[in-house]
């Protein structure tokens, strides 16, 4: 999910491994955003310039020619490539091509959507790894380093720190954002207010990141996500599906999308589960929508 530390872990692995590969390494940041703003040809040029003569890279004028050039460059060399934040299967195909890769080559992909790993005709093994939240001890340590520049937290902030950490569900993004917002803040009443606020709704920076995943959903998928967040955690999937179908929604496809994007989980006994930050986010969105409808009704009555 968003903010779990995918890019951070990818950078650590890349830095550990690149001495084995010499100059044949490339780390492409934030591919989903770059593809939308600057185009995939720009990314192809960047990848090639990292690993070969830059003059070859800058001669690329279209995606197909870029695929051919990349294929010729990496097909007989062991390379290390990180594709960070991929949101479309075509991005993988157009950045590493479909030609044979040299044995020993490593391609590391980070994504919020597991469906991008279903590549038609791709003959290599894809090994998925789903990131997990931090343990409580590690979460408290990360929060403390951002809030106090030290660990463990001072005795007079210990209970408040533990309370705040418990609201984050082990999400590094939330722990860093909240900790940084409280850095050098010594007034305990402000800490108490922050804890009370976080028990109702996630940190604003975290909300913004989670909103990216939510905005990428179709309308039906958004409705089903909100329903699960607000009232269906721990409820049976089959019962909810019947209700959604009665209301004209397409729940099976929506559930598959939400699972693939790590926004919900279905437990072994077929019940819904969700990370606490996504649950609080869903409730916040539902509240905003109710407020918006209420305001609209008032204006309509004027």
Q: Largest sheet, described in full?
A: 3 strands, parallel
Helix percent band:
55-70%
Integer average pLDDT? 90
Number of domains: 3
The gyration radius over C-alpha positions equals 23 Å
Q: What portion of the residues fall into strands of 2 or more residues?
A: 5-15%
Distance between the terminal alpha carbons, to the nearest Å?
43 Å
> How many alpha or pi helices?
15
Order of helices and strands: HEHHHHEHEHHHHHHHHEEH
- Morphology call: globular
Poorly predicted parts: none
Strand order, largest beta sheet: 1-2-3
What is the count of β-strands?
Answer: 5
Structural class: mainly alpha
Report on this model:
There is one protein chain. The protein has 15 helices and five strands. The chain has 302 residues and is mainly alpha-helical. It folds into three domains: 112 residues, no CATH class; 65 residues; 91 residues, Winged helix-like DNA-binding domain superfamily/Winged helix DNA-binding domain (Arc Repressor Mutant, subunit A, Orthogonal Bundle), CATH 1.10.10. The strands form two sheets. Strands 1-2-3 form a three-stranded parallel sheet, with helices on both faces. The chain has a two-stranded antiparallel ribbon with strand order 4-5. Helix 8 runs parallel beside helix 10 and helix 12 packs across helix 14. The longest helix has 26 residues. The protein is globular. The model has no long low-confidence stretch (mean pLDDT 90).
Give a quick precis of the structure:
By secondary structure, the chain is mainly alpha-helical. It has 15 helices and five strands.
């Amino acid at each position: 999910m968003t903010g779990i530390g995918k890019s951070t872990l990818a950078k650590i692995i890349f830095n550990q491994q690149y001495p084995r590969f010499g100059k044949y390494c490339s780390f492409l940041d934030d591919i989903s955003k770059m593809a939308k703003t600057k185009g995939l040809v720009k990314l192809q040029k960047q990848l090639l310039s990292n690993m070969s003569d830059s003059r070859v890279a800058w001669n690329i004028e279209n995606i197909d020619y870029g695929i051919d050039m990349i294929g010729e460059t990496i097909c007989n060399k062991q390379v290390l490539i990180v594709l960070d934040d991929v949101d479309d299967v075509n991005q993988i195909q157009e950045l590493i091509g479909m030609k044979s890769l040299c044995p020993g080559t490593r391609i590391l992909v980070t994504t919020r959507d597991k469906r991008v790993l279903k590549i038609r005709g791709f003959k290599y093994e894809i090994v998925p790894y789903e990131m997990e939240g931090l343990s409580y001890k590690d979460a408290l340590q990360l929060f403390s380093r951002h809030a106090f520049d030290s660990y463990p937290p001072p005795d007079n902030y210990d209970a408040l720190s533990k309370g705040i950490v418990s609201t984050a569900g082990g999400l590094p993004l939330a722990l860093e954002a909240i900790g940084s917002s409280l850095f050098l803040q010594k007034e305990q009443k402000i800490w108490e207010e922050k804890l009370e606020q976080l028990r109702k709704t996630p940190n604003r920076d975290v909300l913004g990141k989670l909103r990216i995943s939510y905005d990428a959903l179709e309308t039906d998928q958004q409705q089903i996500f909100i329903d699960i967040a607000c009232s269906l955690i721990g409820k049976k999937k089959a019962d909810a599906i019947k209700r959604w179908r009665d209301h004209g929604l397409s729940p099976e496809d929506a559930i598959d999308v939400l699972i693939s994007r790590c926004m919900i989980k279905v437990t072994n006994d077929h019940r819904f589960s969700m990370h606490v930050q996504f649950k609080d986010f869903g409730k916040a969105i539902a509240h905003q929508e109710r407020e918006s409808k209420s305001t609209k009704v008032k204006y309509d009555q004027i």
